[in-house]
Amino acid sequence: MKKKKVIKKTELTLVHIKLFYVLVLLCGFHLPASATSNSQSKHVIVAFDQSIGKYNTDLFSPKVLTLVDEILDKNDFDRAHDYISMVAYTLNVRNPNLSDYVKPCTHNENAFIWQHLGSRRLTNILPRWPIGIPARSGRAADYASMQSLAKPFIVMETKLTGDDTITVDQTIILLISDNVVNGTDDDYEREWKHVSTIPIANVSLFKQQEQTVFSKMRAFNEDFKFIRFQVNLSNNRASGTIPVSSDGTYCIIPYKVVPAERPSIHSVTDLPSPIPMVRVRGGFMVKTDPHSLKDKYSISHVEITDASGKQLTESRDGALDVLLKSNEVKAGDSICIKMSLRLKDGLYNGMRISGDNDGMWVKQAVKLQDEAKVIGLFPLSDSFWWWFPNDVFTAVMIWDLLLLLALIVLVGFILYRLFVRINSYKPSNNNIKIEKI
Q1: Confidence at residue 51, expressed as pLDDT on a 0 to 100 scale
Q2: How much of the chain is in helix, strand and coil states, percent to nearest 5?
Q3: Among 258-262, 342-346, 381-385, which is the least confidently predicted range?
Q4: Residue 115 CB partners (closer than 8 Å, separation 6+)
Q5: Measured between alpha carbons, how far is 140 from 51 in angstroms, rounded to an integer?
Q6: What is the pLDDT of residue 398?
Q7: With bands split at pLDDT 50, 70 and 90, how would you rate the model's confidence at 391?
């Protein structure tokens, strides 16, 4: 009997161990999913400089696609939901045409713009690389990179139409070039004039397009700026320059595209502060319909979270007409209002200013300025809110009236009992004598 019991205990222990590992695995799969759901949406634009001289071999090698895939994998790129675009840029100085300066790469003869990768890798999508890079006619010596124009025109090449509802929280450029670009201090006017006067340049065509190009650049720089940053790589490394060629000159340089202006909720919208809240049966009614104060912004999303970050409600157009339930928040609790804006710049149209950014969220306490209380002392509990569920003042007034009537009845009853007691005659045994006749 003892031997059988030992076997049963051992088998039970093994079952427990297996269950433990199953739970660990489930948690392991759950945690990354949660982290991904909280990350900001992205649009990554991979931009290839086609005027790179001796580094064409590196450009035409699948290695460059493998490096891009590695950067995506190590930097929270959600292949199912985030977007990727691939473009190439170079300018023919003999026949300068800015509409051909940046061209999209192609996949199955379609522009590789705003695509989801899903489970696919770039080397699988473009197995015959460099097929997919836009073809350029003429000699290599006829082309110039025009690096000072590159980043704005790269972003503008992926412009969304006004009918598109796509927006992302982060726009990133992976600039693949043989030159290190000096941030946002590029002097495009100086470079334009320099390139337009080299011996092989078509001066007249450059002159014809000069004002159009300069006005586009000025308009873009009013709305956006570029920030270099470091990306995560394998072996827990981070770098702002990822070499492609053996000498490191031909490399990948990551940039973030960010709004030039840092708006805040109350600077660009008429959202009231604090947001109005009315006590109703079952919780607190929030009703507000904010609008943008500037044409370049539109409200794309508003949400309210509790102190722990749990979402209580959301709105896709900014209008809120919702009930915050009593079992979720109570008077004195803190809530957070987050607002996201769509930047309607007319040049890119894909940027959303996230509610997680500074200035795009505010906190307030669940507090009512004129909270009605029964007889002026007690808040009306949901369990005693039997009438007028959306009008706390009328509900309290009825309770006040009922309590007043009850008080009047009670006082009347007490006075009646006193009256009866005072006017009742109760003789004692000394005053009453009974005799048998």
Answers
A1: 92
A2: 35, 25, 40
A3: 381-385
A4: 83, 84, 85, 107
A5: 7
A6: 63
A7: low
Cα–Cα dist 55/308, whole Å: 52
Decide if 50 contacts 143 (C-beta within 8 A): yes
Task: Name all contacts of 353-357 with Cβ < 8 Å and 24+ positions apart.
Answer: 353/259, 353/263, 353/297, 354/40, 354/169, 355/301, 355/302, 355/303, 356/40, 356/169, 357/262
Residue 85: the pLDDT is 98
> What whole-number distance in Å separates Cα of residue 120 and Cα of residue 126?
10
Across-strand partners of 280? Answer: 283
Contact 260, 222 (CB under 8 A): yes
Q: Which tokens sit at 230?
A: 């470091």
pLDDT level of residue 21 (50, 70, 90 thresholds): very low
Note whether 345 and 296 are within 8 A (CB).
yes
Phi, psi of 87 (to 5 degrees): -135, 170
Residue with token string 């930047």: 343
Which DSSP letter does residue 254 get? E
CA dihedral 34, 38, 41, 44 (to 10 degrees): -70
> Tens digit of pLDDT for each residue in 183-192?
445 689 988 9
Distance in angstroms (rounded) separating the CA atoms of residues 171 and 243 = 22
Which backbone phi and psi does 143 adopt, to 5 degrees?
-110, 150
Cβ–Cβ contacts within 10 Å for residue 254, how many? Answer: 20
- Any idea of the CA torsion for 356, 171, 241, 106, to the nearest 10 degrees? 150
